[in-house]
């Protein structure tokens, strides 16, 4: 497959920044036919293509044409069945990651799937490439160019894995009796026919948070499939993550963030990730807010588990709803219909009945 669209938002009459242009030369292969879209007027709905977003940010961390494109993208199906990657090039040290995760959420809701680790971000100093440069025996710019080339190739080659009888792991920290998040999951589950579902609770403080062991110590335990702190994370959760084909996190919105137990799980997952990256596993989410901010929780899942831990982000990866009083989720208009659509979507994704699979 080829990259068919390069989405590079530029102000009218503007030019691609020199550094981003250099990176682009490494991302696009010789003879590859790609269309570069630079203005909102050119940006029309795209279906079933391999696309790369290249967004340059000014010293203030903004790109106004990018936000005009985002406004267009926030239409259902605007990027239906597309596979995407993102390169963010910043002039300063801030806003690259926040820009990326908002873009990925918007494109995902619009129908775009992202392979694991779909982001290459460059801060103004390129200090974030210092480690990669040392590992590749090159300078920071060389590491940046290599990362862009690798991302473009992974977008080209991406084929979503599927299983005839897939396994889905549902992780939660919910009180069954009062949790709207759990009630919504109960509405989704009946539509997961043919999917082996395993549920694990992270309640009762059984998972202590990561305290940041030195890298060498973490790798020492990781090589043995363990973690210095042990416990239920090593005995039960990690083995369940290893054997699953998809992970769904049930996330009530706690102060515009995932709960402490979910956060501890994500942090402790680093040891397993260093041993076994998750490029072949899908990520899903159910997010319920009492008031607002479900998009912030969804972006937290994207940032930690897709951009960092390499889970595949399938199109429309999350069901994001609002419900306050216990049990009130069932009174939300058309909630049963949306739960059915989401459950069927999870099943179809895991079994390969969508674009990007070998089915």
If helices are DSSP runs of H or I spanning 4 or more residues, what is the number of helices?
11
Number of strands: 11
Q: What is the fourth-level CATH superfamily of the largest domain?
A: Flavodoxin domain
Q: Within the CATH hierarchy, at the fold level, what is the topology of the largest domain?
A: Rossmann fold
Tell me, what is the CATH class of the largest domain? Alpha Beta
Briefly note the structural class of the backbone.
alpha/beta
Count of all domains = 2
| Overall average residue pLDDT | 91
What spatial form do the alpha-carbon principal axes imply?
A: globular
Estimated radius of gyration: 20 Å
Question: Could you give a short account of the major beta sheet?
Answer: 6 strands, parallel
The fraction of residues in strands falls at 15-25%
Helix content: 25-40%
Q: Could you name the ranges where pLDDT drops below 50 across 5 or more consecutive residues?
A: 209-213, 217-224, 355-359
Strand and helix order = EHEEHEHEEHHEHEHHEHEHEH
Distance between the termini: 16 Å
CATH architecture annotation name of the largest domain = 3-Layer(aba) Sandwich
